[in-house]
From TrEMBL:
GO biological process: protein transport
Superkingdom to which the source organism belongs: Eukaryota
InterPro entries, per the entry: Arrestin-like_C, Arrestin-like_N, Arrestin_C-like, Arrestin_domain-protein
Gene3D superfamilies the record matches: 2.60.40.640
Protein name: Arrestin C-terminal-like domain-containing protein
Lineage of origin: Eukaryota, Fungi, Fungi incertae sedis, Mucoromycota, Mucoromycotina
Residues in Arrestin C-terminal-like domain copies: 165-280
GO CC terms, sorted: cytoplasm
Domain Arrestin-like N-terminal: 21-141
PANTHER family hit by this protein: ARRESTIN DOMAIN CONTAINING PROTEIN (PTHR11188), FI21816P1 (PTHR11188:SF17)
Amino acid sequence: MNSPVKLSIDLLPEFGWRINGEPVYSPGSIFEGSVKVDTATNIPQATIKILFVGTEKLRPDVAAISGVMLEQRPIFAVRSILFGKEGPQDIPSGKQQYHFAIQLPMVNYPPTFVHSMCSCSFRLIAVLESNSTQRVYSEQSIRYIPYIETSPLKDTYALTAHGSSISVPSLSYLQSDTIPIHYESKNSPVTSVTVKLRRRLTYGDDGVEDHLDETLASEEIKLTNTLNGTVYFNLPESIIPTIDYSSWMSMTYSLEVTVRRQKRMGTAAHFMVPLTIGTMGPGIRTPSDLKPYNQFKEAADTSRRVVPCFVQRIEYEDCLPEYASYKLPNYQNSSDWAAEPSTA
């Protein structure tokens, strides 16, 4: 076939939720889309498949050092035939589209992220096969975010060292949250408070692990003649949620706080506050049937695997008609709504 074939994947915008305009999906989400084919001539004896693949990946040299045999491990891989289920058929010329719908299981997979050491991706891959042409591919990335609670504390979390103390109201926050940090010094004024967001990335397999410590954000707040007060630290907007349920990698966070006093009064006080970066607002609980990915992997050999599945598309026949701002609905006569005389 001489003329090129254009293949693309289009997701419907009304599914999932959005972060900065980008669609995001979580456990239990359903999303719909279509594979579109644009061809100037007929495509004889063709089939169209859609694959949904989730993958954890370690950088090859990191995988070798960490004792991992394969640097890429599938989380899941499912597929469906959208065209040619009963055998290859001709695709007519012009623009065609073939619909699909996918439901994610109630399993907390690692979130979509890319790091220099490792990554986790979720991809839709459309494949068009025909006897008259080479395979044609199209790929669409899916952004996935797990459900992670941010539980409020009954009391503030407090630490004391070298005559200084700090306290925070919670140990779990969302992206872009502002963390209030209260500080206090017993003997001398505080000259500055330095706050660093630290992340430990642990990776490896079969008992062979390594880790990388990173500083993601840092801020020093200068102070003058104050024994106590509150400083505020803003979490980055693009921070990856805490990962502690993957068999290959984990991401944990902490807040490193340094309280410096006047030099003649001794050394600075250092504090490490463990943090959870969640995805759900304070007090919102995860569904009771939600399972962590590592538990799902451990049970995979003895029970049915829980993976995404292709489902029937949602029909909208029973929806209300589209509202037109220039035409009011045909209400009943206003006299029909008059109150009946009281019989009391």
